[in-house]
Amino acid sequence: MSKEAAAPPRRSYFNLNPGSIALHLLPAAAFALYVYCNQGPFQSTQCLTIGKNCRSSSFTYMEGTFEKADFYAPVARYYNSLFLRHEDLGGSLAVFTDGVPVIDLYAGFKDLEGTKIYDNTTLQNVYSCGKAVEGIIIARLVQSGLLNYDAKVTDYWPEFGQNGKEDIRLVDIMTHEAGVFFLDDDNKEMSWNSLKDREAFSARLARQAHYFGKDHKGHKRAYHAITRGWYLNEIVRRVDPQGRTIGQIAKEELMVQYPDVELYYSHFPENNEWWESRLSPMVDYPLIRVIGRMIIPDWIRNHQRIGFPGLRPAHRLTYQVMKKDSLTAKGLSLSFVKSVAGLRTKEAHATESTSFSLKSNAHSLAKLMAMMANKGASINPGQEPDLLSREVYEEATTFYSEHEDAVTLTSIPLSRGGWVKSTHLHDIEGLKGVEIQGWGGAGGSLIVWIEELGLGFSYVTNAFGAPEGVLGDIRGHTLLELVVRARKQELGLLPKPEPRKAEENKPKEKITLLQKLRLRS
Ligand SMILES: *[C@@H]1O[C@H](CO)[C@@H](O)[C@H](O)[C@H]1NC(C)=O
């Protein structure tokens, strides 16, 4: 017998059955998963799966303004670290104090491979952050006497008074209590085209029944994530003397009065190149990690050695959004858009959905927030007009109510104008006791003003973060916490920061899960 014949025959892949293939693939899949989860999510697929063509972890593109480093250096350092750790891909960050920009940065890339830089010409869809600007435009119409928060919607739009909505007021729409957080009439198909047929769509919005019924027994608040802007636009175009929509007013008034502010709800120039070159694509958070956060038990997640203490669990609404018939899924999903890429098409840009379609940048949004922090008054008096009169600012930002929301499963205190008004936003430690106003958007963008600190803040990203909260995720929250601390130090409300020791400047050794497991055994 020859030597070769004695060796056990190597199993041919021809006679592997599916079961044993799965068995062999399991360790490979586990390894891929391990690599995948140990690197920041926003890398090319090649990098995450086979470790090839990874972007550098010691360099990221960043440009713009950064002042008062004595106080704000920790903010810039953390922002930079988000890109180096691939927790963010591209975006902008802007902070105004007393109306002056101290941070105005553009960073990272538009694509996972890192071939297109994210510069100061880049625009970003900021989703529900557009609601904060929507709220400002409604307040301006209140100021001109064209709208009144307490008036019934039927005063402006008689057809709205059907199916239990007869007594709904403008303030109910602003505070997500109008009961029309999704459209279920006749189970009609939705598409971008159905939005284009204005009169038919308007009739459809008017016909929609109040979901909780006329008496509003039980639930009151249900986040009108998608629909608020559609309903508001029906009202706005009926009261505006020129019949304009919210998006047209943003463009013809705000963008003209404040020339450095860019706000596009739609109506992009017809040619594809303009928005192809300016509007950054959005990158989704990897589904596998979402599922990981959902199924890994808390004791493992928080375990000092094998887990990742500090990593937040998936928000409650993540579980609900996956159940097709839940109110969360109904309220948050745009059934006809299959992925985030579907919001960046010519068809999508041809229609206006002000609750989720705003394209802007951090500078523009932080500037508006800075004027709100200035109680509506101009931050460049003599050169630019006030955003709102003091009187309307006070009225619009008066606290309205706080209820558990049937869609987001969260209690968020709201003002009459429809912005969050909270001194305990998401129970974030560094924000306790500071009154935050503003709103957040899907994916993690966050725009906020803080009156008492004279602060306008905006974090804009093209990289969907983990679904950790309703308004912002760990990235925006940490940035805001650091900004608030720096601002308090600057104002002498907290002790001045100690100069950094040379020791702290040394990069910390990266402890991976593998090393942690070794330490344990
Ligand atoms: C954008 O950056 C360029 C330099 O890269 C600068 O010249 C220009 O003024 C900046 N534009 C704005 C609006 O900040």
Automatic annotation (TrEMBL):
Q: Gene3D superfamilies under this entry? A: DD-peptidase/beta-lactamase superfamily
Which SUPFAM superfamilies does the protein's record reference?
beta-lactamase/transpeptidase-like
Where would one find coiled-coil regions in this protein? none
Q: Which Pfam families match?
A: Beta-lactamase (PF00144)
Query: Has keyword Transmembrane helix?
Result: yes
Query: Could you tell me which InterPro entries the record lists for this protein?
Result: Beta-lactam-related, Beta-lactam/transpept-like, Beta-lactamase/esterase
Q: Keywords assigned by UniProt?
A: Membrane, Transmembrane, Transmembrane helix
Instruction: From the record, give the transmembrane residue ranges.
Output: 12-36
Ranges of residues in domain Beta-lactamase-related: 89-254
Keyword check for Metal-binding: no
Protein's name according to its UniProt entry = Beta-lactamase-related domain-containing protein
